[in-house]
Design a protein that fits this description.
This protein has helices spanning 13-22, 30-46, 75-85, 96-111, 119-131, 149-160, 176-183, 196-201, 205-235, 245-249, 254-266, 275-278, 284-287, 301-304, 306-328, 356-383, 408-424, 446-478, 489-501, 512-525, 527-536; strands at residues 4-6, 26-28, 90-93, 133-135, 138-140, 166-169, 172-175, 336-339, 345-348. The chain has 21 helices and nine strands. Helix 1 crosses helix 4 (96-111) and helix 3 crosses helix 6 (149-160). A hairpin with a 2-residue loop joins strand 6 (166-169) and strand 7 (172-175). It is mainly alpha-helical.
């Protein structure tokens, strides 16, 4: 695997994922190393005396203590005490992949040379990443105001080798000092000097780490939701006129046009969605219902309106990806340092640490994916109800009726996830409680927004995977009733991959928990979308 080189300006989401999830190694560019040394040398030679101008968090306290000068003799103690004062996190820790992403993103922010920590701080972060040492950072406690102060304080404590700091190393939770010793990455105690601590804990970097991962997972999820939709369209012998390109051009949103094109590609060659297939009436003893089948002129919304529902999700993800791209290569602490014409540097206080961009983007992600999961769940509910599915077997049940139940409780579980998602979709970015003596009188709540968006994505991975499972069950149970009718090229490839991993349930109920877990893995591992891509090429 290729190393990732950081310079503060060119890191991509794909690079972050390679480091966070695939263990890619990281190095600092030579140009960034030289720039960091130059700015730091200037600071050490020009500003490190008690008559220097007061510069926030260099030689002053923080928050409402911004007017209090820190004497040079106390600056190193200030670094230690600053981290201790901000170690107020609560709850379960972030995952190791979030920890890796956070360290990478913080190091990349420093590499742009706007933050002015010592280059040794960047090297220490990269040593942790490359050795596989992951800080234990509580998920709760940040309001996304002066950045993710609480979780990043735990990261800083681990980097500095505090006795209290804990990390994950080779799958074991242990004191940071023990992991540093075992990994042989340098001295256990790492002294922090002027600006080092405030640079480490300032900026919404934990929020950003979660956002990068959630945005990637949401993009894959939407691709798989196109597959689950395609399989359900086949199972229900849907009317395909709603996906006609002329309809989309009459309301030319990019995402709507894209969704319809994806469906047409996946179902290319399908005859199960033909008028002839819809004309076939399944026997009453299969449907177990007294309501007769009647032909339909057009389908219900959860089938017919999918371009108009999936389309906004495609468009929202494009917007979110752009926000994330910009944040990945942003300097987000305070103050920042800038070179002056003619030599020297100037320090300017600002608000780049504020997480509102991320907070609003993650609220949008939560809302978009919640609605995606909602329409998928409604199709699952139709698949098990013969009064709504145009004659599919009740509950998609097999075996002795009554003794066996089929899938209604599985669908009920999806309903619980949809309801949970709807609650999590309440926007957090509009909630603001002033903090720190009212010096931070408007906060972003970015960490919570990112965390709940990620939870919504994880919940919806189950919904989409189970729709694939139940649509495949419906296709298997009715294939003998529709002899000669075939699936589309893409949907056939998806169906074949599903059947490789989960055999059809044709002899009565079984331990459905296991099938749900495998169905979930369709989305998290990408096996179904990979099989379809191998057959029809890139389809999204």
């Amino acid at each position: 695997m290729s190393n990732v080189t950081i310079d503060g300006f060119n890191l991509t989401a794909e690079d972050v994922l390679a480091v966070a999830r695939n263990g890619a190694k990281v190095e600092l560019s030579a140009t960034s190393r030289a720039a960091l040394k130059e700015s730091r040398d200037y600071i050490e030679s020009t500003w490190m005396h008690d008559e220097a101008p007061m510069m926030y968090s260099f030689n002053t306290g923080v928050g409402l203590l911004k007017d209090t000068r820190i004497k040079v003799e106390h600056i190193e103690l200030f670094q230690t005490q600053l981290i201790k004062a901000h170690s107020g996190g609560i709850g379960e820790p972030f995952s190791e992949e979030v920890g890796r992403a956070t360290m990478l993103l913080r190091a990349n922010a420093f590499a742009s040379n706007y933050s002015a920590p010592r280059v040794e701080v960047v090297d220490r972060l990269l040593a942790f990443i490359n050795a596989g040492i992951h800080p234990i950072m509580p998920q709760k406690g940040s309001v996304g105001a002066s950045g993710d102060l609480a979780p990043l304080a735990y990261l800083a404590a681990a980097v500095a080798g505090f006795d209290e700091a804990e990390v994950m190393y080779k799958g074991v939770r242990m004191p940071a000092a023990e992991a540093i010793t075992k990994a042989e990455i340098g001295p256990v105690k790492f002294d922090l000097k002027a600006k080092d601590a405030s640079a480490l804990i300032n900026g919404c970097t934990a929020s950003l780490a979660v956002a990068v991962l959630a945005a990637k997972d949401a993009r894959d999820l939407l691709t798989d939701a196109c597959l689950s939709l395609g399989l359900t369209l086949e199972a229900m012998r849907a009317e395909m006129s709603a996906f006609d390109p002329r309809i989309q051009q009459a309301r030319p949103h990019p995402g709507q046009i894209k969704t319809a094109a994806v469906v047409r590609k996946l179902l290319k060659g399908s005859t199960r969605t033909s008028h002839e297939a819809r004309a076939v009436q399944f026997p009453d003893e299969l449907r177990r219902t007294d309501i007769p089948y009647t032909p339909r002129i057009q389908d219900v919304y959860s089938l017919r309106c999918t371009p108009q529902v999936y389309g906004p999700v495609f468009d929202a993800l494009d917007y979110i990806d752009n926000i994330v791209k910009n944040e990945i290569n942003s300097a987000t602490d305070n103050p920042l340092i800038f070179g002056k014409d003619g030599g020297g540097f100037e320090i300017i206080s600002g608000g780049n640490f504020h997480g509102q961009y991320l907070a609003q983007a993650m609220d949008l992600l939560a809302m978009a994916i919640t609605d995606l999961g909602s329409i998928c769940e409604r199709r699952v509910a139709r698949l098990i109800d013969p009064t709504l599915s145009w004659g599919l077997p009740r509950n998609l049940m097999s075996g002795l009726r009554g003794v066996n139940t089929g899938y209604p409780v599985v669908q009920c579980s999806l309903s619980s996830l949809v309801m949970e998602n709807r609650t999590l979709s309440m926007p957090g970015s509009v909630d603001s409680i002033p903090s720190k003596g009212n010096s931070e009188d408007h906060i972003s709540n970015s960490t919570w927004c990112a965390r709940k968006a990620h939870t919504v994505v994880q919940n919806t991975q189950y919904i989409v995977g189970v729709e694939m499972l139940l649509a495949a069950q419906a296709l298997t149970m009715t294939e003998g009733l529709l002899p000669g009718f075939k699936l589309g090229e893409g949907t056939q490839a998806a169906y074949d991959e599903i059947r490789k991993q989960i055999p059809a349930c044709l002899e009565g109920d079984r331990w459905f928990h296991n099938d749900i877990q495998v169905a979930h893995s369709f989305v998290t591992s990408g096996t179904v979308r990979q099989a379809v891509t191998a057959k029809v090429g890139e389809f999204v």
